[in-house]
Design a protein that fits this description.
globular; TIM Barrel
Length: about 290
């Protein structure tokens, strides 16, 4: 089997839990920071641009530093939280330039926040695909809308040719050979009402329930401490169930005390510390015999 460029996809495809590092804002997007992150413990690096600065020069520098320090081993995966949200199809289409700009820097995936409808998510997936990359027959979605021009810069980060990039820069698992990881945040009450439809859109690999924003949607100023209010428990369980039904990996935060139980329950993408990842990976190996 050909070695994966996207290490996060390699983990999910093998049935392993994956772990990420990086916050919703404040990313240090410099060449030196990229070099330093080449040896990260995480399966992917999250770069928050929903609340953080939309800094394409910084992202360029960070990705170049990451590639320089990684050499022929390939870089850790990098996923960016988009500034645009998924509140409407029109909003996603108008702001599709963000997908083009970010993907051309050589990142390995994108996360759409406040994904409220299948129409908005379909537009998101189309924005990340090239026109020759058609979606499945009968799914009612159009071909990709990503334009030519950014493949050379992205390919240089991936360590492949521009032609190879055109073949590989497609969402997994829709394309089993694809190397792009696309995720969603189902993080408000409007999104919750259509979550089952939304998560069936081809091209989405993982999703989370966005507990902080979901809490605000239900009238809380911040995420309530345990025991969780019934309406938030129900929201979390509905998103989790929809992920399982659609074959989409569920993302959630964890601690070293509860990560094993969450893995056993079926959570596959985790935010947390290096210690959480160590405990979770060790448990996964033991559980798989």
């Amino acid at each position: 089997m050909t070695r994966r460029i996207n290490r996060a996809i390699a983990g999910l495809a093998a049935g392993r839990p994956i772990f990420y590092t990086g916050g919703h804002s404040g990313a240090n997007l410099t060449f030196e920071a990229g070099m330093g992150m080449a040896s990260t413990w995480a399966d992917y690096i999250n770069v928050g641009m929903e609340h953080g600065a939309f800094d394409m020069h910084g992202l360029d520098e960070f990705m170049r530093g990451l590639a320089e320090a990684s050499g022929t081993d390939g870089t850790p995966a990098v996923l960016v939280e988009l500034p645009v949200d998924g509140s409407s199809e029109q909003g996603v289409r108008i702001n599709a330039w963000q997908c083009r700009q970010i993907l051309a820097r050589g990142v390995h995936g994108l996360l759409l926040c406040h994904a409220e409808s299948p129409e908005a998510v379909s537009a998101f997936v189309e924005s990340c695909r090239y026109p020759f990359q058609t979606l499945g027959v009968g799914d009612g979605l159009n071909a990709g809308r990503r334009g030519a021009g950014g493949q050379a810069t992205a390919a240089a980060i991936w360590g492949i040719t521009a032609d190879e990039y055109l073949d590989k820069a497609d969402p997994w698992p829709l394309n089993p050979e694809g190397e792009l990881l696309l995720g969603l945040k189902i993080e408000n009450r409007r999104a919750l009402e259509r979550v089952e439809e939304t998560l069936r859109v081809p091209g989405i690999a993982f999703a989370e329930w966005g507990p902080a924003d979901m809490s605000m949607s239900f009238g809380y100023r911040s995420f309530p401490h345990e025991p969780r209010p019934p309406e938030l428990t129900a929201a979390r369980e509905r998103v989790f169930a929809a992920c399982k039904a659609a074959g989409v990996a569920f993302l959630e935060g964890a601690s070293s005390e509860d990560v094993a139980a969450k893995i056993d329950a079926g959570v596959r993408v985790f935010g947390g510390s290096e210690e959480v990842a160590r405990v979770g990976r060790s448990h996964a190996v033991t559980a798989n015999g």
